[in-house]
Amino acid sequence: AMVCHAAVVLGLLMIGWRHFGDLTAGVAAGALYLLVPYTAYNIGQVHHVWPTAFLVWAVFCYRRPVLAGWLLGVAAGSAVFPALLFPLWVSFFSRRGAMRFALAFVAASAISVGITALVFFLLVLFSVLYYRRSDDQVPPQYHGSMLLEISWTAIPTVICLVIFAWGVKVYAEL
Fold first, then answer.
1. In sequence order, which residues have a C-beta less than 8 Å from that of residue 148 and are 6 or more positions away?
2. How does pLDDT run along the chain (174 residues), one tens digit per residue?
3. In a designed cystine with 58, which of 50, 71, 89, 109 is the match (CB 3.0 to 4.6 A)?
């Protein structure tokens, strides 16, 4: 989920830079997205932010109807609300690639739904095939690695501290 949130913020930065010619507008949009209570409330729920990340990048790629169609199609294949935007996007692309956008959207949605169905089928299949048959069957127990646990705690902490120090430096220069 955090990667998807980062993709949304990066997409907003890129939209500000590329479409408005002002990186500050992108930083403001990214900061506003991160300050919205809904973002904090659902910070760990990937199914909320996954389609949003694809939607933001579709907006960034609006000048390329096929790419925008694929991005919106993947979002629509994994959630319902991006599919509701399909008529809006098709009307936007009228006379400039509406058919290419629509074909890319339908293909990406079909592939995304197909992959979801395949994963669901395999999940059910392996749950049935490898279900533990009796209470005395216990799988082998593994214990964690202290080095690994310290690493995945320390590395993000150091990254956050570096970003914080950089922000303080930039703020002091204002």
1. none
2. 888 889 999 999 999 998 888 888 889 988 888 888 877 787 788 888 888 899 999 999 988 888 989 998 888 888 888 888 888 888 888 878 889 889 999 999 999 889 989 999 999 998 888 776 676 777 777 778 888 889 989 998 998 899 888 888 888 887
3. 71
Q: How much is the pTM?
A: 0.63
**How far is 174 from 165, CA to CA, in rounded Å?**
15
One-character DSSP codes across the chain? -HHHHHHHHHHHHHHHHHHSS-HHHHHHHHHHHHHSHHHHHTTT-HHHHHHHHHHHHHHHTTTSHHHHHHHHHHHHHH-SGGGGGHHHHHHHTTTTTHHHHHHHHHHHHHHHHHHHHHHHHHHHHHHHHT---STT--PPP----HHHHHHHHHHHHHHHHHHHHHHHHHHHH-
Please say whether the beta carbons of 105 and 73 come within 8 A. Answer: yes
Cβ distance 15 to 59 under 8 Å? yes
Q: Can you say how many angstroms the Cα of residue 36 is from the centroid of all Cα atoms in its chain?
A: 17
Report yes or no: 81 and 102 within 8 Å, Cβ to Cβ. Answer: no
